[in-house]
Amino acid sequence: MNSLKKISFFPLFILFLFLSACGDKEELVTIHTEFGDIKLILFDETPLHKKNFLKLVEQGQYDSTGFHRVIKDFMVQGGDINAKPNFTDSVNYTIPAEFNPKFFHQRGAIAAARMGDHVNPNRESSGSQFYIVEGKTFSVPDLEELEKNMNRGQLYKKFKTMIRWTKYVELRKEIEAISLSGNQEAVHQKIQEAKPLVEKELGKVEEIHFSEKQKEIYESKGGTPHLDGTYTVFGQVIEGMDVVEKIANQQTELADKPVKDVFMTITVENVPKSEITEKYGYQYPEKY
Questions:
Q1: CB 3.0-4.6 Å disulfide test: which of 40, 69, 106, 141 passes with 223?
Q2: Strand, helix or coil at 237?
């Protein structure tokens, strides 16, 4: 009886290992362009963006879309299905933001485009448009100064909302008078002093602080750190940044549109994560 149990258990154990291995797979996305292929993975931790992107790929909706906005040392943006020649389907929805400090705008990051804060205060993402970060490197002092300016901007945004209220008309006049005098440092100081009042009226001012890991990567590999915490990063290029650079280097016209269209098609295949790491050197990040 004991030997029978052992014989029965062994095939089940092998089956369990096989199913586990099959389950540890990744959707490897390939963007095909005339300049070559860009390979990327999408993050499980941003499930709404990942599911939407893969749905559009599987439906073939990205095929024949282009990179319609390219800026050297910054990013290349594409995937506007609504601008596709002879399109029959439109994407008229947005996706809730999925900010995750684990993922940031390092070189090769895939992030969702969106409308500006003035019409999109919740920072919801476009239903189809995305961009790939090319970026540049930053020194640690540069990052610290940028961090300070970003946090100042977060406070100023709420402050501007508050002083539009009738009950703060006198404060608004005071700020305008100081500003007209040209003493911007006094303006900064006055707004900083008003921070407790701003937070009382409009809630806590969320501050951005770059982790040591972010600083290390922005210093060594580069990126666009000023976009962190404001646009959803949902994937990472694992091969083909030379192709991104070629697209970013294209001659442009009005609104950073390439003079010569750069079209794409996108395909997806399931690949074991171990193969992704072995073949492309991509290390799946831990939380930090």
A1: 106
A2: strand
Q: Which amino acid is at 184?
A: Q
Q: Kindly report the average pLDDT of the chain as a whole number.
A: 91
What pTM does this model have?
0.86
Poorest-pLDDT segment among 27-41, 79-93, 265-279: 79-93
Class of domain 27-136+221-280: mainly beta
Assign residue 171 a region: left if phi > 0, alpha if psi is -120 to 50, beta otherwise?
alpha
Q: Which among 61, 125, 70, 69 is positioned nearest to 99, based on CA atoms?
A: 125
Average pLDDT, stretch 246-268? 97
Residue 272 dihedral angles phi and psi, to the nearest 5°: -55, 140
Q: Which amino acid makes up residue 221?
A: K
Nearest to 40 by CA among 268, 245, 223: 268
* pLDDT band, very low/low/confident/very high, at 84 (cuts 50, 70, 90): confident
- Residue in 129, 131, 137, 130 with CA at minimum distance from that of residue 73: 137
Per DSSP, what are the bridge partners of residue 265? 32
Residue 33 sits at φ, ψ, to 5 deg, of -135, 170
The domain locations on the chain are: 27-136+221-280, 141-202
Q: Please say whether the beta carbons of 18 and 213 come within 8 A.
A: no
